Structure prediction request, 221 residues.
Amino acid sequence: MKSAEIKTFGADKMSVKSIVETRRSVRQYDSSYKISWEVLTSLIESATKSPNGNNIQATRYLIIDDPSLKELLLPIAYNQQQVVDASHLIVMLGDYQAFERENIIEINEEAYQAGYLDESLKNILVNNAINYYENQSREELKLELTRDVSLASMSLVLLANEAGFETITMSGYDSKKLKEALNISERYLDVMLIAIGKGTEEGHSTVRHKVEKVMFKNKMD
Prediction:
């Protein structure tokens, strides 16, 4: 078992290939071990660099570390013990307000002021993004959020494993009850939960399809 106490965050980096091929979903955690807020913030700061549609930056990270709140969420997450034992539980959310023109204008204005864009490109990006989202249905926007939050979630998992922590992603929970318990409004789409901490047992290996079964060229069979 890797030790998060021994490995220094950002040091002795494994390759992405190695992390992907050796990563396991871990369900048993040392409940006494707590990841520092500084390290967790650094992991999330890096995850925010993940690809996202039109750079609207819609992903939100709700961090749960209050033991009583974890206990409240345990039955909502179908009594998965990692909810209470992991150092932190992260609710991965998408913000529907990120599609609004004010957010799109603000982000591109900041990029312009930073010198990353000239005014012409800024205006093109703003207009393209606004036009792209303004006629989309709620279901279409939900799909956009799911894509962006999922990309950020994968980045966070890889970053956490690189730092010597264990993780597990969870879709097994009652969404309605979770949002009620955490006072999450309909402004946000809950996409998944991520438990992160110091594992006490290795996750089991899994069988994956051979690449020939999942890879196609030019057309689907």
